[in-house]
Write a structure and sequence with these properties.
The protein is an alpha+beta fold. The chain is built from six helices and twelve strands. The protein is about 20% helix and about 25% strand. Helix 3 packs parallel to helix 5.
Length: about 260
């Protein structure tokens, strides 16, 4: 089963750069997109559909702000919009989930802490709430794949010039600690790192162009512990650029 995740910096621009032509040839079972910057009604046009896929979108209600999507070959049994946080931040076009018999796949766009709407405090509260959510669902007899733009990197090998960036949002000590707790204590798995240990694998280039400035790996597939051993292949696609982020492609030994 192939799952692709990409934060697109606006779906209109990514489409103009050939995203949908590329996706149509990837033989993916799930495609999770983030940061669409579009309203759902704008995405009902044929150019934003993929033949053979069911398409689902969740917008923020505000034009040009956030938005996530999931394309799936099989029709899901249920759709979940948001994560049920009391703050309501998760309902700003940040999370969409498709449920099947034993598997759930989510598309996540975390707060970036780069604007007045998305301060560091908002980001911290979002991940505190998300940790509580993950604690709760680990008791369910269900497997999860959370794909998305997590807006933070984990270890020094996930950020070029890590020493220089340790005081920047996305690589702050408490953010790295949160990820360590997620992987080491709560028990979820960084699927990419199960099979790819290279230190120069970056999925995001803040300056906008691959190779320009520092690279970060902020785009993860975070999976249930039971799925960690089912990761067969993981790569960051770098041949063609659709946004400042690169597609993360992971193959799993899973059948729905």
């Amino acid at each position: 089963m192939r799952v692709i995740s990409l934060s697109v910096d606006g779906i209109f621009q990514a489409a103009q750069r050939g995203l949908y032509t590329w996706l149509a040839n990837q033989d993916a079972d799930f495609i999770c997109l983030q940061d669409l910057r579009a309203l759902e009604r704008e995405l009902e046009k044929p150019e934003f559909q993929l033949k053979g896929y069911h398409a689902y979108f969740f917008d923020s209600g505000t034009k040009h702000y956030n938005g996530v999507a999931i394309y799936t070959r099989q029709q899901p049994k249920a759709l979940i919009y948001g994560l049920g946080f009391a703050s309501g931040v998760d309902m700003e076009g940040r999370y969409l989930q498709v449920d099947f018999e034993q598997l759930s796949v989510g598309s996540l766009l975390a707060p970036s802490a780069s604007s007045e709407l998305e301060s560091q405090e908002v980001k911290i509260k979002f991940f505190d709430d998300f940790q509580a959510h993950l604690d709760k669902i680990t008791r369910k007899r269900r497997e999860y794949i959370f794909c998305g733009n997590w807006q933070m990197a984990h270890t020094p090998k996930d950020v070029s010039n890590s020493a220089k960036n340790q005081h920047n949002s996305g690589f702050l000590p408490h953010e790295r600690q949160w990820l360590s707790q997620l992987f080491n204590q709560i028990g979820y798995v960084d699927a990419f790192r199960k099979v790819n240990k290279d230190s120069d694998e970056y999925s995001w280039w803040p300056n906008g162009e691959k190779g320009d400035g520092d690279g970060w790996r902020t785009d993860f597939h975070v999976v249930s512990n039971s799925l960690g051993g089912k990761v067969e292949y993981a790569t960051i696609y770098k041949t063609q650029q659709f946004s400042s982020h690169m597609p993360v492609i992971i193959d799993y030994d899973i059948e729905l």
